[in-house]
């Protein structure tokens, strides 16, 4: 009996966690690797992963250097279905094992965000963590003005991604040019995005002293801010939206907070009990221990595995067994020939190269 069978069911698939702010997406993956490797929930998958790696290594040439994935903290095959900036929090879709092959389908899914936009200033990264690039009067901005301007962002339109993004220019991430102070070879192209919902949740004033980057403004200064809910398509950048909103409102603006409350069928709330929705695992539960996170993670993975069953020995069409038993086809009233040579002759075709010369010799004989 295999090690995976001894430990229990092998769980793999897709689930979601609630990423906290100030933690990068790659760090979340490393945290999950460290948490899962010592758990009983993923012991079968760990054993299976190690077995497959050992098989792959046994087929490698003796002089080829093999990378030690576990030394880098990567025990499982794992990835995400759409990154979140370090400043952002919320739903982060995770694929583990076979689930990683399905992650690309989530990149194009609809997402729901709630963001806080601060008016009166702009930054190079379009968020509050960037360097201040300008200040502008914002006393004229009201909730009514913001509501009127939000109408401009509903539906389809062209949006230019921020320079601080992972989009590549000549094979290099755009943000790398910005961080290193290098000139960008070309501008990022605007692309089509779609906004299903764009509404003002709250209009408020924020003290400048609440943000460490506003050192050049009076600590007592109050800046108008808007909390906005967005339901958007893939490829939409909330930071670009914040920057553009400031401009259309006759001022400047930057993104102060960002929270993704939903992506595809993963959500943060008790509403996950509704059909078709899955609840994301809170990060505090991941840190609290296996008893806290295992039930919710296992539930999501069982659901995924039921929808994506593994191929077994009965699935002959998938694994190639029994292909010689495929029914023969007919050609012009007779059974199609069984060999390539005979099929070509049967259909009146001609042979090429040495195959043609050999056939001619056979016909002359």
From TrEMBL:
- Enumerate the residue ranges of region (Disordered): 51-70, 329-365
User: Which GO BP terms sit in this record?
Assistant: mRNA pseudouridine synthesis; tRNA modification
Provide a Gene Ontology MF annotation, just one. RNA binding
Family, as annotated: Belongs to the pseudouridine synthase TruB family.
List each copy of the Pseudouridine synthase II N-terminal domain by range.
77-204
Q: What is its EC number?
A: 5.4.99.25
**Reactions that this protein is recorded to catalyse:** a uridine in mRNA = a pseudouridine in mRNA
User: What domain of life does the UniProt record list for this protein's source?
Assistant: Eukaryota
Q: Enzyme group, top EC level?
A: isomerase
Matching SUPFAM superfamilies, A to Z?
A: Pseudouridine synthase
HAMAP family noted in UniProt: TruB_bact
Q: Which InterPro entries does the record match to this protein? A: PsdUridine_synth_cat_dom_sf (IPR020103), PsdUridine_synth_N (IPR002501), tRNA_psdUridine_synth_TruB (IPR014780)
What GO terms fall under cellular component here? nucleus
Recorded source organism is Clohesyomyces aquaticus
Output the Pfam families linked to this UniProt entry: TruB_N (PF01509)
Q: Which PANTHER family match?
A: PSEUDOURIDYLATE SYNTHASE TRUB1, TRNA-PSEUDOURIDINE SYNTHASE
Q: Which UniProt keywords apply?
A: Isomerase, tRNA processing
Its recorded name reads tRNA pseudouridine(55) synthase
């Amino acid at each position: 009996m295999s090690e995976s069978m001894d430990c229990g069911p092998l769980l793999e698939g897709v689930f979601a966690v609630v990423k906290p702010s100030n933690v990068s997406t790659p760090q979340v993956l490393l945290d999950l690797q460290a948490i899962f490797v010592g758990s009983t929930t993923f012991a079968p998958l760990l054993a299976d992963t190690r077995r497959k790696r050992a098989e792959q290594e046994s087929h490698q040439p003796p002089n080829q250097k093999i990378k030690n994935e576990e030394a880098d903290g990567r025990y499982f095959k794992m990835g995400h279905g759409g990154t979140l900036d370090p400043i952002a929090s919320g739903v982060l879709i995770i694929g583990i094992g076979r689930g990683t092959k399905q992650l690309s389908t989530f990149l194009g899914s609809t997402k729901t965000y709630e963001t806080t936009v601060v008016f009166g200033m702009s930054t190079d990264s379009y968020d509050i963590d960037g360097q201040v690039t300008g200040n502008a009067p914002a006393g004229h901005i009201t909730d009514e003005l913001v509501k009127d301007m939000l109408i401009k962002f509903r539906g389809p339109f062209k949006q230019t991604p921020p320079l601080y993004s992972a989009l590549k220019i000549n094979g290099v991430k755009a943000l790398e040019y910005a961080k290193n102070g290098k000139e960008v070879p070309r501008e990022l192209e605007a692309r089509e995005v779609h906004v299903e919902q764009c509404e003002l949740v709250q209009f408020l004033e924020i003290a400048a002293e609440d943000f460490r980057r506003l050192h050049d403004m009076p600590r007592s200064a109050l800046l108008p801010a808007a909390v906005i809910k967005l339901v958007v398509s893939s490829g939409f950048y909330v930071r670009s939206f914040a920057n553009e909103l400031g401009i259309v409102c006759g001022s400047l603006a930057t993104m102060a907070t960002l929270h993704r409350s939903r992506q595809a069928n993963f959500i943060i709330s008790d509403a996950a009990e509704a059909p078709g929705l899955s609840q994301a695992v809170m990060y505090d539960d991941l840190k609290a221990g296996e008893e806290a996170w295992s039930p919710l993670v296992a539930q999501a993975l069982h659901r995924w595995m039921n929808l994506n069953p593994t191929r077994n020995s009965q699935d002959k069409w998938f694994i190639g067994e029994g292909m010689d038993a495929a029914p023969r086809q007919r050609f012009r009233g007779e059974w199609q020939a069984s060999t390539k040579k005979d099929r070509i002759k049967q259909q009146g075709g001609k042979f090429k190269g040495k195959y043609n010369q050999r056939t001619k010799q056979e016909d002359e004989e």
